[in-house]
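Morning, I've got a small favour to ask if you have a moment. The fold is given in discrete form, as structure tokens running alongside the sequence. I'd be grateful if you could look everything over and explain what you see. No rush at all, and the record is pasted right below.
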Amino acid sequence: MIIGIGVDIVDVERFKWMLRRTPATLERTLTPAETHDGSGRARSAESLAARFAAKEAVVKALGDVGELRPLECEVQTADSGRPVLRLLGKLKELSDELGITDWHVSLAHDGGQAIAYVIAERRE
């Protein structure tokens, strides 16, 4: 059963401008595993923006979570290459309270936009 769906879109140029204006934003919103790939190479701005969008989409799927805690949601990359979500702290507690058993996430970027689509599911 689907518990929630969230989608978010980020303008990549605006995201890059935000990071230039306030460089600490990167550390406050994305984990080292999100900013670098498995080989240690820095991810592109498009990839970072998509991961940022995923965090917003998770919050939308959960409903009102109060204060946004971006480091409590991490977009990891499975061995298959597909993105997977890991929740921590308050977001994990809320997910557990809602009985969410699976998270599905899709990331894309094109034409200066990055998008994330998230589905929260509970297996009956």
Summary: The first strand starts at residue 2 and ends at 11. Residues 45-62 form the longest helix (18 residues). The radius of gyration is 14 Å.
